[in-house]
Amino acid sequence: MLEIKQLNVETKQTHKPILKDFSLTIKEGEIHAIMGPNGAGKSTLSKVIFKNPLYHIVSGKMTFNGSDLTCLETDEVARLGLFLCMQDPMVIEGVSNSDFLREALFSKTKERVNLYTFVKEMTEATKQLSLRDEMIHQPINQGLSGGERKKNEILQLLLLKPKFLILDELDSGLDVDSLKKVCHVLNTYLKENKETSVLIITHYSRILEYIHPDYVHKMVDGTLAETGSLSLAHQIEQEGYQINEHTKEQFHE
Ligand SMILES: Nc1ncnc2c1ncn2[C@@H]1O[C@H](COP(=O)(O)OP(=O)(O)OP(=O)(O)O)[C@@H](O)[C@H]1O
Ligand SMILES: [Mg+2]
Fold first, then answer.
1. Is there an atom of ligand 1 within 6 Å of 222 CB?
2. What pLDDT, on the 0 to 100 scale, is given for residue 113?
3. How far is the CA of 196 from the CAs of 83, 121, 164, in angstroms?
4. Does ligand 1 lie within 6 Å of residue 11's CB atom?
5. Are strands 215-220 and 223-228 parallel, antiparallel or unpaired?
């Protein structure tokens, strides 16, 4: 599904190298997790997939179901079915949650959803996520707490029904009960959409206890240093990010 090969990325303005020979393949229905120290390049990876103009792809390959992501615009990447749950969702003044999502759905399906049906579906999603339903008609993320903004990202996901989810530190800002609830909602979505793949970026194994990863990767200095199972996440939590040659497993083909 997603194939990244030997990707080298630098910042456009300062030419600072961030991703260094980064390779990762995620097949249909697989769940992968990336853990790594602050500044390792995890969020940059997600931004590069979504073609953030601050970054320049120096070399390498990045395809999604055969489409070359390196020559697409952000909206085209989204239309392929990729979705990014951002680490720091921002407030967008003047655009209501309902207008934004209805427009995004139209852009995806080219069909206008009946307003009544749409608001009903959105209300249902707010209930599932314990969000106040007044937010539906309010500007995106305005007046929402950090954790509520994360829930709003998941609300967007539920309405847009993407095929590939990138969750960048979804767990940061969510309290223990909210994390459990959001993961339950996501697991239900994944059960109903078995072909969906997930890339979870996290610092803690707790989210991985709820959404079980097939692979856990350790990312250090812009590249994957180690790949393993959930036990690697536990090991990282106990030992930190020192490279352990004995437990090293090669994931690259
Ligand atoms: N636009 C930019 N201009 C300059 N430096 C940048 C830019 N974007 C990212 N960086 C740098 O690249 C490195 C990787 O940043 P990134 O946000 O990807 O880290 P991260 O792994 O997501 O960290 P965290 O765990 O703290 O979220 C950092 O040193 C950061 O300062
Ligand atoms: Mg980050």
1. no
2. 86
3. 11, 21, 6
4. yes
5. antiparallel
Q: Residue 185: what pLDDT?
A: 97
Buried-exposed string 197-217: b where 16+ CB fall within 10 A, e elsewhere: bbbbbbbebbbbeebebebbb
Domains of the chain, earliest start first: 2-247 (3.40.50.300)
Is-above-0.90 flag for pTM? yes
According to DSSP, the residues that pair with 40 across neighbouring strands are none
- Ligand 1 atom nearest to 18, measured from its CA: 12
92 C-alpha vs ligand 2 centroid, how far in Å?
21
Mean pLDDT by 10 residues, the chain (253 residues): 98 98 98 98 98 98 97 96 96 96 92 91 96 95 96 97 97 96 98 98 97 98 97 95 58 51
What is the number of alpha carbons within 13 Å of residue 72 lying toward its C-beta? 19
Q: Which of 118, 116, 90 is nearest to 102 (CA)?
A: 118
CA separation for the pair 253, 251 (Å, rounded): 6
- Give the burial class of 250: count Cβ atoms within 10 A of its Cβ; 0-12 exposed, 13-18 middle, 19 or more buried: exposed
Q: What is the pLDDT of residues 222-238, one digit of tens each?
A: 999 999 999 999 999 99
Closest by CA to 24, choosing from 244, 194, 226, 190, is 226
Phi, psi of 128 (to 5 degrees): -55, -35
Pocket test for ligand 1, best of 7, 16, 171, 241 (most atoms within 8 A of CB): 16
For the CA of 219, the nearest atom of ligand 1? 21
